[in-house]
């Protein structure tokens, strides 16, 4: 008998996580916001994409409504507790005519777990060009869902990936959940979108995309060496995260997430990703380095 899907609504959880409170107007030399943890998380460690998204939302609360986040650079300083609330302190670094800069620290237990600087811009016009979307990629409707791949596995992490993520994520080709089939290459592609509609706020869509970007970005480094998420003894953690948003996007419509790993060394893997709309518009680029430790003798490639 297949495991019973959970009763919580993943979209309701996502929107609740992104709906920060202003801590009753509390303020020091920073604007203070409070965000929820995720009580439905399958693991005690806080998901990095969540704290990234919440930090962007906190910063966006302090800029003019017509200013959109166009870049962020963050460092994961400490592991967070998934079930505990977070406090966000936003420092207003600069407000110009077109650009505003913010520094956000995310805190748990009175210590920072993430430090991020983000830049916001009022929409403008200028020169334009972009990379082309890869050709020959099958559409998302032709690919299996995570629920179809993992829904029959009676394991808490498999159940969470199948039913509790607020995103529909579909790998183009083989996934690396439990093994690595096919050639060990340092690139991959996935389709993704939220399971339900999002509010129209463009900064919220961009924050949600930062949330989703952390799900699979380290996989090209792992795939290159035949390492699955289920390898016994593996230890993987995000170290930093940088993201650039190029054009307006809708995270509740399908986006193709193309990623590659140009280098891995000294227990770290660097991974780069690009997001395209179905009609080939490049909307965002992301980069992340992750710590990757595997038991001695388990990887020979």
UniProtKB/TrEMBL annotation:
Q: Which residues cross the membrane?
A: none
Q: Which GO terms describe its molecular function?
A: hydrolase activity
> Which EC number(s) are documented for this chain?
3.1.2.-
InterPro entries reported for this sequence: Acyl-CoA_hotdog (IPR042171), Acyl_CoA_thio (IPR003703), HotDog_dom_sf (IPR029069), TesB_ACOT8-like_N (IPR049449), TesB_C (IPR025652)
Among SUPFAM superfamilies, the record links this protein to: Thioesterase/thiol ester dehydrase-isomerase
The family line of this record is: Belongs to the C/M/P thioester hydrolase family.
Give the protein name, as stated in the record. Answer: Acyl-CoA thioesterase-2
